[in-house]
Amino acid sequence: xxxxxxxxxxxxxxxxxxxxxxxxxxxxxxxxxxxxxxxxxxxxxxxxxxxxxxxxxxxxxxxxxxxxxxxxxxxxxxxxxxxxxxxxxxxxxxxxxxxxxxxxxxxxxxxxxxxxxxxxxxxxxxxxxxxxxxxxxxxxxxx
Amino acid sequence: xxxxxxxxxxxxxxxxxxxxxxxxxxxxxxxxxxxxxxxxxxxxxxxxxxxxxxxxxxxxxxxxxxxxxxxxxxxxxxxxxxxxxxxxxxxxxxxxxxxxxxxxxxxxxxxxxxxxxxxxxxxxxxxxxxxxxxxxxxxxxxxxxxxxxxxxxxxxxxxxxxxxxxxxxxxxxxxxxxxx
Lengths: 143, 180
Known about the structure:
The complex is a heterodimer of chains A (143) and B (180). Chain A is an alpha/beta fold and 143 residues long. Chain A has a single domain (8-137), classed as Rossmann fold. Chain A is built from four helices and four strands. Chain A has helices at 8-22, 58-66, 89-108, 118-128; strands spanning 40-45, 70-75, 112-115, 135-137. Chain A has a four-stranded parallel sheet with strand order 1-2-3-4. In chain A, strand 2, helix 3 and strand 3 (112-115) form a beta-alpha-beta unit. Chain A is globular, with a radius of gyration of 15 Å. The mean pLDDT of chain A is 90. Chain B has a single domain (4-178), classed as Glycogen Phosphorylase B (Rossmann fold, 3-Layer(aba) Sandwich). Chain B has helices at residues 18-27, 46-58, 71-79, 97-101, 114-123, 132-144, 146-162, 165-178; strands spanning 4-9, 31-37, 62-66, 83-86, 108-111, 127-129. In chain B, helix 1 (18-27) packs across helix 6. The longest helix of chain B is centred in the C-terminal third of the chain and has 17 residues, at 146-162. The relative contact order of chain B is 0.14. The A-B interface holds A 6-9, 11-12, 15-16, 18-20, 22-23, 25, 39-40, 42, 48, 70, 72, 76-80, 83-87, 111-112, 114, 116-120, 123, 136, 138-143 and B 10-11, 14-15, 38, 40-41, 43-44, 68, 89-94, 96-100, 102-103, 114-115, 118, 159-160, 163-173, 175-176, 179-180.
């Protein structure tokens, strides 16, 4: 599991990986894209972690696909188009234009996208044009 | 009048909806609000930080602590308060703070965003509001009703069991396997 967040997503990854390890599964959590010994890479994703607009994840996704890895990506948050905000009006407009493009591109390189809520699935489909088949809803675990 | 202690956890961000809680404490000096969390995101959240610091100067019932809590501190901070507030903007449909704090069984009053509505509707694990007035009413309702607090506690226990990490890990692994 690949995660570079130091806050909520890090805690999330640690708990998830530790629950899987308890079941004897071969999985690690890392802030390095350590894919060589693994068949699948699960990325904990937030647009702000791969600024600008999540675009910085795309070269990593290309690399993973070149190495024929299965890729699963979990979105922490997917902002609905009508409620997006950024530091000023110009950035808000840019965000509204670029986020759907970056999200669509990200989805092309992923085998499955995970969201934690039904509403986020609806946003991905309606505002970002992602196919329903690509998305799986798995609720947030309780600590 | 007794003091009602409320807290907002998590990284400092405009979308946490501090202004909603602050509007309430400005009207109710008996509600004491603590805001605790680290500051990330640089310039994006500078105005939020300035706003909080300015409010802290003028309000005696507001305390702002800008720092990342250690894992073991979450329990201490949660249990030192009567209510955990999550008045988030709708841009934040999901919260990592809620699942993290649920085990401490401290009542949570949240905005009616997607995940909070789910926790309320299906588990009674929290109470939601869709306006500042409603949020204010619900704070008093939860604080004054032992019956409601007990119901929330039971709901929280149910939710903790159903969405345990073991169950969530199983779902993830099943998904991984389906890709091969």
